[in-house]
Write a structure and sequence with these properties.
two-stranded antiparallel sheet
Length: 215
């Protein structure tokens, strides 16, 4: 859907970062409201449009500051590197002064847009979540970053994760199973990728015919 259609709001609701005004969100039939939010968060990986990085080290951001809670540090360190490798960010991070201990400011201050987005992707992949929500995941990536993103999505899909991708450009959606088109906060149409693309093409063709008619 176009900008302002409600895609990012939907992604925040599915990620559990925003409560719906009505109804509820369910996964495998179970309502999010029946889960402890902290427990549920372990199963959801979320990459927002803005990186959402916090002041701290890169490693802390990838682990969602898990080392400050109750996770064993050696296990956290292993999962941090694993997530960074999955995001194709490991070598990029090692090139930074301090590597995984490099400090960043709020919003990824000190990193380029592409670097911040790849660290945020690693954060979304941390712990191999069962649900992965990616909001405009390629907006700040170069060709290398886009390849890493595709590989990360393929790997997540291969291990059985459910992936929700939000985009207004179709390139990043070419391998999805289903599409939903949003307009003015409503789902305009949804179905298999082939069905939705055919319907959109038919609508565009019909609109072109109407516009070509003499007045």
């Amino acid at each position: 859907g176009p900008s302002g259609a409600g895609k990012s709001t939907l992604s925040r609701i599915v990620a559990g970062a925003l409560a719906p005004d009505a109804g509820d969100i369910r996964i495998d039939g179970a309502s999010y409201a029946d889960w402890d939010p902290e427990a549920l968060a372990r199963y959801i990986g979320y990459l927002p449009q803005e990186s959402g990085l916090l002041a701290g080290t890169i490693g802390e951001n990838i682990s969602r500051f898990a080392g400050h809670v109750d996770d064993r540090h050696d296990d956290v360190d292993h999962k941090i590197v694993e997530a960074a490798r999955q995001a194709g960010a490991h070598q990029m991070i090692l090139r930074l002064p301090g590597g995984y201990n490099a400090l960043v400011g709020d919003g990824g201050l000190g990193l380029s847009g592409g670097q911040a987005q790849r660290v945020a992707l690693a954060r979304a992949l941390y712990g191999q979540p069962k649900v992965l929500i990616l909001d405009e995941p390629s907006s700040a990536l170069d060709a290398e970053g886009e390849l890493a993103l595709r590989n990360a999505m393929d790997a997540a899909r291969a291990r059985g994760a459910a992936i929700l991708i939000v985009a207004h450009r179709s390139a990043v959606l070419r391998n999805v199973d289903r599409l939903a088109v949003l307009s003015d906060g409503m789902i305009e149409r949804q179905g298999s990728q082939a069905e939705v693309r055919d319907a959109l093409e038919a609508a565009r063709s019909a609109n072109n015919v109407v516009n070509m008619k003499p007045r």
